């Protein structure tokens, strides 16, 4: 138990610290690297809570795809981050005050909240009892049955995203040499190779 | 592993058919070569017509499927037919424009079909997640369509602006939905309705905050004040047929979704959300009336006008009663015809083959194009709400519902705002009829434009002669939402 608690605090502290580093670093590449560290720690927190599927997704999707994409963008685009961040600190007091007011308001509101007593019964898909099923198994069981409609709709959304990316970026360019495998395969020896008789001391 | 029953597919048949048609059309477009765009557009119109027939032939009872995530009832059918009509007319209107501007691409029709599919899914959403995926399918297609003239700065800017603000509003909507789920324990509309009916209108504070965020997200989609900032820029920047599409179908779908969400699961919390809708509605009506006065671009004017019209439609929703919903349904149905007709006129405004958008270009139109000027005058009078045009009846029913719900101040402000709005609508009529023409617009107007202009014009002008089909349809749609 105590080890779990220690692990939780270590991961949580590192996650928060690297979150702060993300916004305070001068070099944007370092910021992205700290973001990746934050993701790893958040994934570790998920593992501690027994949500290993979410942890894996976080690492595969966020670290593997999103953060690497960020890294690419930061390195490829020539954005002057130092200029963008100029005056960042002078807004800090105002932002801090607004944040504080919001926090106080939220505490005032949530100090009185109660969970609706019917909330437990109204839940449609009961959570699987731990130990019987793994996360992934449980998700797989509802994803393609109970949530098939949403699954298909999400697929359509991805299709539209793909069409959109192609519509907005694909350009037909003239004079580009394309590889045509059929033509390559259809070429015969006598079309491609010519036997030249070279006379001695003559050259081609 | 226990076998799972296949969900009933019949209630969702129109959506499934439209999805299959859209994907088939994508294939046709990809392999069809250079000549496919126009064929694709007509096939898309045919697909929308088939879907509308499938919506209409289904029997009239309420049906749920996919574990209650999808619902079809009289309300959904009525709104779906309106959306399909709007999309179909917008597709037809865009064909010759796209050819003239040399931007014909088959993906345009395919994206319109996917956007329409998203709208149908929004209308039938019976679950917070289904609401979100439908909305996102629609929005994502619309972002791309707004930026489809990628070589012009304005169109790209419109698409980007719409995308960034749309993503923000989706974020707010999701935050609200997650709060509602966290405090109520379910995302199902039926489950939420049961929960709040049992607690007789009392809800945990988290749910209330969730509803506020959900409303903010939905207000963005119907472009109601204070979430309207994107509308004028996007309307102006997007190609005109796309603007015509934006002004009609997505608005109707979003209003339908708004109505179902607030009156279905949160019907018992009407006291909680009524103030929000009243404030948003007043804001939209007033801003729509005053901000449009100074516009010189007719597309921007139409943007502010549509903000105002959404405000009037929300008056009916604020009433929260069956009469209010009937008013909303009648209002958006009549708005469909007025807006499509006006955009058919705008798309016919050409000067030496170029599309012009200035209001000043309409000067003296009655001398050069008497019929088009007459039709535009009809639409403007109707939008201003002058009897006996159709627009008057739309406003009449929503204000009647507001008065019945004892929202007197809302009704009074609405009427006053519509007086202010009448100024800029009638100014266009004055320009067309009483000013001398500066430079005449081109004579030739495409055949399909003329047909659409006349059809919608006659409906707008002569609605009062035979209003029964629409009135009865709207009444039964409203009754279906209230379980009557």
Topology, pairings included?
The complex is a heterodimer of chains A (204) and B (484).
Chain A: H1 2-24, H2 28-48, H3 52-76, H4 81-84, H5 92-110, H6 119-122, H7 135-143, H8 148-169, H9 181-186, H10 189-192
Chain B: H1 13-32, H2 36-57, E1 63-65, E2 70-72, H3 74-100, H4 106-123, H5 128-146, H6 153-184, H7 189-198, H8 205-222, H9 230-237, H10 240-263, H11 270-291, H12 298-319, H13 322-347, E3 350-351, E4 354-355, H14 365-368, H15 370-384, H16 390-404, H17 408-434, H18 447-462, H19 468-481
Antiparallel strand pairs in B: 1-2, 3-4
Helix pairs in contact in B: 1-2, 1-4, 2-3, 2-4, 3-4, 3-10, 3-13, 3-19, 4-5, 4-10, 5-6, 5-10, 6-8, 6-9, 8-10, 8-11, 9-10, 9-12, 10-12, 10-13, 11-12, 11-17, 12-13, 12-16, 12-17, 13-15, 13-16, 13-18, 13-19, 15-17, 15-18, 16-17
Short description, anyone?
The complex is a heterodimer of chains A (204) and B (484). Chain A is mainly α. Chain A contains 10 helices and no strands.
Write structural notes for this entry.
The complex is a heterodimer of chains A (204) and B (484). With 204 residues, chain A is mostly helical. Chain A has helices at 2-24, 28-48, 52-76, 81-84, 92-110, 119-122, 135-143, 148-169, 181-186, 189-192. Chain A is 67% helix and 0% strand. Chain A starts with a helix and ends in a 12-residue tail after the last helix. In chain B, α1 (13-32) packs antiparallel against α2, α5 runs antiparallel to α10 and α8 (205-222) runs antiparallel to α10. Chain B contains 19 helices and 4 strands. Chain B starts with 12 loop residues before the first helix and ends with a helix. In chain B, the strands form 2 sheets. Chain B has a two-stranded antiparallel ribbon with strand order 1-2. Helices cover 74% and strands 2% of the residues of chain B. Chain B is mainly α. The chains are: A mainly alpha (204), B mainly alpha (484). Chain A binds chain B through residues 109-110, 112-116, 118-120, 122-124, 141, 145-150, 153-154, 156-157, 159-161, 163-164, 166-168, and chain B through 1, 4, 7, 12, 19, 23, 26, 66-70, 105, 107, 110-111, 114, 117, 121, 129-130, 133-134, 136-137, 140-141, 143-144, 147-148, 150, 159, 183-188, 191-192, 194-195, 198-199, 203-206, 209.
């Amino acid at each position: 138990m105590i080890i779990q608690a220690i692990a939780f605090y270590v991961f949580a502290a590192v996650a928060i610290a690297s979150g702060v580093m993300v916004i305070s670093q001068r070099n944007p590449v370092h910021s992205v690297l700290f973001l990746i560290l934050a993701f790893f720690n958040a994934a570790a927190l998920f593992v501690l809570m027994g949500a290993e599927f979410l942890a894996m997704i976080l690492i595969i999707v966020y670290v593997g795809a999103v953060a690497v994409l960020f890294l690419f963008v930061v390195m490829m685009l020539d954005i002057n981050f130092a200029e963008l961040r100029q005056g960042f600190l002078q807004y800090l007091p105002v932002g801090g005050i607004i944040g504080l007011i919001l926090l106080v308001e939220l505490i005032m509101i949530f100090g009185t909240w109660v969970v609706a007593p019917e909330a437990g019964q109204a839940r449609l898909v009961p959570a699987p009892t731990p130990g019987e099923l793994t996360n992934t198994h449980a998700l797989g069981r509802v994803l393609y049955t109970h949530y098939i409609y949403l699954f298909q709709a999400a697929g359509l959304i991805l299709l539209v995203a793909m069409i959109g990316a192609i519509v907005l970026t694909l350009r037909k360019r003239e004079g580009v040499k394309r590889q045509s495998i059929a033509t390559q395969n259809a070429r015969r020896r006598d079309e491609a190779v010519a036997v030249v008789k070279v006379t001695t001391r003559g050259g081609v | 592993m226990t076998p799972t029953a296949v969900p009933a597919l019949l209630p969702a048949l129109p959506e499934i058919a439209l999805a299959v048609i859209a994907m088939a059309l994508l294939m046709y477009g990809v392999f069809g070569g250079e000549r496919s765009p126009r064929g694709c557009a007509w096939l898309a119109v045919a697909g929308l017509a088939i879907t509308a027939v499938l919506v209409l032939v289904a029997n009239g009872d309420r049906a749920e499927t996919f574990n209650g995530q999808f619902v079809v009832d009289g309300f959904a059918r009525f709104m779906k037919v309106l959306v399909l009509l709007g999309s179909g007319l917008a597709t037809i209107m865009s064909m010759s424009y796209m050819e003239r501007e040399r931007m014909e691409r088959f993906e345009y029709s395919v994206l319109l079909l996917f956007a329409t599919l998203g709208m149908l899914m929004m209308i039938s959403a019976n679950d917070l997640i289904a609401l979100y995926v439908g909305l996102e399918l629609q929005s994502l297609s619309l972002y791309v369509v707004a930026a489809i003239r990628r070589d012009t700065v304005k169109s790209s800017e419109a698409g980007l602006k719409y995308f960034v603000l749309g993503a923000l509003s989706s974020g707010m909507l999701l935050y609200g939905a997650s709060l509602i789920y966290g405090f109520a324990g379910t995302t199902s509309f039926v489950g939420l309705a049961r929960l709040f009916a049992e607690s007789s209108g009392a809800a945990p504070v988290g749910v209330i905050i969730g509803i506020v965020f959900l409303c903010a997200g939905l207000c963005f989609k119907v472009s109601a004040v204070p979430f309207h900032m994107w509308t004028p820029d996007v309307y102006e920047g997007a190609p005109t047929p796309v603007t015509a599409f934006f002004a009609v179908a997505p608005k109707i779908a979003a209003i339908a979704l708004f109505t179902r969400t607030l009156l279905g699961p949160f019907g018992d919390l009407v006291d909680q959300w009524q103030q929000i809708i009243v404030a948003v509605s007043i804001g939209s009506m007033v801003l729509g009336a005053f901000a449009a006065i100074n516009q010189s671009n007719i597309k921007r004017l139409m943007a502010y006008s549509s903000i105002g019209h959404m405000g009037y439609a929300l008056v009916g929703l604020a009433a929260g009663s069956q009469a209010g919903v009937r008013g909303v349904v009648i209002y958006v149905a009549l708005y469909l015809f007025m807006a499509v007709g006006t955009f058919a006129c705008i798309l016919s405004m050409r000067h030496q083959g170029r599309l012009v958008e200035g209001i000043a270009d309409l000067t003296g139109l009655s001398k050069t194009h008497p019929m088009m000027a007459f039709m535009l005058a009809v639409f403007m009078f109707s939008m201003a709400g002058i009897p006996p045009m159709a627009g008057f009846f739309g406003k009449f029913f929503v204000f009647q519902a507001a008065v019945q719900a004892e929202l007197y101040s809302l009704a009074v402000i609405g009427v006053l705002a519509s007086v202010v709005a009448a100024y800029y609508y009638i100014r266009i009529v004055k320009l067309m009829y009483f000013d001398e023409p500066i430079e005449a617009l081109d004579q030739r107007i495409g055949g399909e434009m003329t047909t659409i202009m006349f059809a919608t014009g006659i409906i707008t002008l002569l609605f009062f002669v035979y209003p029964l089909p629409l009135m009865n349809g709207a009444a039964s749609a409203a009754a279906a939402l209230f379980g009557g």
